[in-house]
Write a structure and sequence with these properties.
Number of strands: 17
CATH superfamily of the largest domain: Thiamin diphosphate (ThDP)-binding fold, Pyr/PP domains
Distance between the termini: 63 Å
Largest sheet: 7 strands, mixed
Shape: globular
Radius of gyration: 28 Å
Helix content: 25-40%
Number of helices: 24
Structural class: alpha/beta
CATH class of the largest domain: Alpha Beta
Strand content: 5-15%
Number of domains: 3
Strand order of the largest sheet: 7-6-8-9-11-10-15
CATH topology of the largest domain: Rossmann fold
């Protein structure tokens, strides 16, 4: 590296020539590819915005001027240009550089993001605060074409246009979701609108026409309509113009000179301006350019250990066109990193088992339909779509719409299954309450990535959904202890007539042999092993770690019983309380925030029963889960579980500590060896 490694910050970009900037862009791509090949990460989107990032940092004076990255998975070049090159090899690792903007890392990171569609509202708020205090800083926001269709983005655009906020919006169009330009006239109109003559003459012309006696206002309206008709004919940005936002585009997103000239001109215009930038996702790495879905997320196809500055790479002696394509079809946000591993076959993950069972059930019941919000690959529903294209709905980044639409489908006699990551289902909380639960409709919420998801960090951990859902009338909340029970719980969900939230992690399964799935009684758990001293009650796949802890404690002389709850709501209080009577300690396990979660449900049941059941009055309870009061940062799930003491060893230690705190020792009858 001859340029990137020597940069001390964005200000150093001003001294670079055009040729040096081109070389810098290649070095940035090399660094991103080399790092992501080891750590995993969002490769394609970051490779696509290298030139745009360079242009923004050359023109704006960050951190005084603010650059907002919507979603944030496209911010790797931004991190490299703002002082994080030396630590970039720690990307998404425990204690390392985050995969999304983080204010704790750098003053150049404006806000902690991770969810799509938030950037425009954040930028509008920053601009409003600037205007209220009389500031002069410039506000720019980079938003992707997919995020632009989210409801939050559209609400923000409407407000920005209405208030005429001085703000620069960079629309990063890498999927060709926005209508393409129709030709040279569009470019000509953009050039005119960027010119000082256009800005002054348009205002002067409007003032002149308005003053014409009698017909002034009418003539002005006709003139504006004619002008709009011409713009509408020639450009794809009519929607933005109608909202009151000046539209400029389409600008080639990998041409530094074009970006520089356009952005500088746009910043001189008054009011909100949207610059439509056409980029190529995965730019500079041919496998990523050709497979934009596989190379979007964090679980990536095989990649070379080193890539040359031309972005083509040697690929272990093969040409780029021969590069291996994805072997993991579930690659998307919050998926595992692509670290080099021994070639050991991994057990299919819970998502794979879920979608396989759903496809089988859909063959039996034509009412079953599947919905997701811009995550067909990550949720596995692309496989459902391949079999039942007419019964599959991808509504884009619009989780609220997905859940309300599912309610309408259920009211119409269908059996909708909405598959969303836990972190994104948070966005549809009101729709879950108001539409699904209030109407008591049989909508199945398939809560993928429940629990810890690891390297994507604070914005993506699926740790808050259980406490939120426990309070909702009519909603059943369940989670399996293994992949085979997941199949049974999915059948259970579709066999009853109420809302049903089915939580499952991103983890691989336990590679259990297939069993015939069955419809389980709602609200009933199962006793996995009896015990006299301690009762462990787990919710979800953490039950397996509870069993390991029980074995370790048994080796020390404790008699430990284990219950698989299956349901957090309705809770099998009868089974749990029956097994808890006379125990020295009751322990609950969940991979969710402990405040108000599954353990709280058990505690509430225990406290209610203590009033009349003397055998329960002296039973203490220890709730083990994700500690409340703090977000969980990025890192491998195994590392996070170890740090949070939610692995088998940590659970065993926490039970030992609780027993010691109450002064309990193993009974002679239970001592082994």
């Amino acid at each position: 590296m001859t340029i990137l490694a020597t940069l001390n910050g964005p200000k150093d970009l001003h001294a670079l020539s055009g040729r040096q900037l081109t070389q810098l862009a290649a070095e940035i791509r090399d660094t991103i590819i080399d790092t992501v090949a080891t750590t995993g990460g969002h490769l394609g989107s970051s490779l696509g915005v290298v030139e745009l990032t360079i242009a923004l940092h050359r023109i704006l004076e960050s951190p005084t001027d603010k650059i907002v990255w919507d979603t944030g998975h496209q911010a790797y070049p931004h991190k490299l240009l703002t002082g994080r090159y030396e630590r970039f090899d720690t990307l998404r690792q425990l204690g390392g550089v985050g995969g999304f903007p983080r204010r704790s890392e750098s003053p150049h990171d404006v806000f902690d993001g991770g969810h799509a569609g938030t950037g425009l509202s954040i930028a509008q708020g920053l601009a409003a605060a600037r205007d209220l205090r009389g500031g002069r800083e410039r506000i720019a926001v980079v938003v992707g074409d997919a995020a632009l269709i989210s409801g939050l983005s559209l609400e923000a655009l409407n407000d920005i246009g209405q208030r005429k906020t001085q703000i620069l919006i960079l629309l990063n169009d890498n999927e060709m979701s926005i209508s393409p330009t129709v030709g040279a006239l569009s470019k000509y109109l953009s050039t005119i609108k960027l010119s000082a003559a256009w800005r002054t003459s348009r205002t002067a012309y409007d003032d002149f026409i308005r003053k014409v006696p009698v017909i002034g206002e009418t003539a002005l309206e006709l003139s504006r309509r004619l002008r709009s008709a011409v713009v509408n004919f020639a450009q794809p940005g009519r929607l933005f113009e109608d909202l009151g936002i000046t539209y400029i585009g389409v600008v080639p997103g990998h041409n530094l000179r074009a970006l520089d000239e356009t952005i500088r001109g746009a910043l001189k215009l008054s009011g909100p301006v949207l610059v439509h930038v056409r980029t190529h996702k995965g730019k500079g790495f041919r496998p990523a350019e050709r497979d934009q879905v596989g190379f979007h997320g964090a679980a990536l196809p095989p990649m070379p250990a080193r890539v040359s500055a031309n972005g083509i790479g040697d690929l272990n002696g093969r040409g780029a066109s021969e590069a291996a394509m994805p072997g993991e079809s579930m690659s998307d946000d919050a998926a595992p990193p692509a670290r080099p591993r021994p070639s050991v076959a991994k057990a299919p993950n819970y998502t794979a088992h879920f979608v396989s069972e759903l496809i089988e059930l859909a063959a039996e019941d034509r009412r079953i339909v599947a919905i997701t919000a811009g995550m067909p690959t990550g949720t596995g529903l692309n496989k459902f779509q391949a079999v039942y294209p007419d019964r599959f709905f991808d509504v884009g980044i619009a989780e609220q719409h997905a859940v309300t639409m599912a309610t309408g489908l259920a009211l119409g006699g269908q059996r909708p299954v909405v598959a969303l990551y836990s972190t994104f289902l948070q966005r549809a909380f009101d729709q879950t309450i108001h539409d699904v639960c209030q109407n008591d409709q049989p909508v199945v919420l398939a809560v993928d990535r429940a629990g810890l998801v690891g390297e994507d960090g604070t914005s993506h951990q699926g740790m808050f959904t259980i406490p939120a859902q426990r309070q909702l009338p009519n909603l059943i909340v369940a989670s399996p202890r293994d992949e085979q029970e997941l199949r049974s719980l999915l059948r259970t969900a579709l066999a009853q007539d109420h809302p049903f939230a089915l939580h499952y992690p991103r983890d691989p399964g336990f590679d259990l042999p297939p069993v015939e799935p069955e419809i389980l009684p709602v609200g009933k758990g199962e006793l996995l092993r009896g015990g006299e001293d301690v009762l462990v009650v787990g919710f979800g796949p953490i039950v397996a770690r509870g069993m390991e802890a029980a074995d370790a404690l048994a080796a020390e002389g404790w008699s430990v019983g284990v219950v698989n709850a299956r349901f957090a709501k309705p809770l099998d209080a009868d089974l749990i309380l029956e097994q808890a009577r006379g125990k020295r300690l009751l322990v609950t396990l969940e991979e969710s925030v402990a405040a108000g979660g599954f353990g709280s449900a058990v505690l509430e049941a225990l406290e209610a029963a203590r009033l009349t059941d003397t055998a329960l009055r002296d039973v203490p309870i220890r709730i083990i889960g994700i500690p409340p009061g703090a977000f969980v940062d990025h890192g491998a799930v195994s590392d996070l579980r170890r740090d949070l003491r939610l692995d088998a060893t940590g659970i065993t230690e926490q039970v030992r500590e609780a027993l010691a705190a109450i002064g309990s020792v193993p009974s002679k009858a239970s001592i082994v060896g």
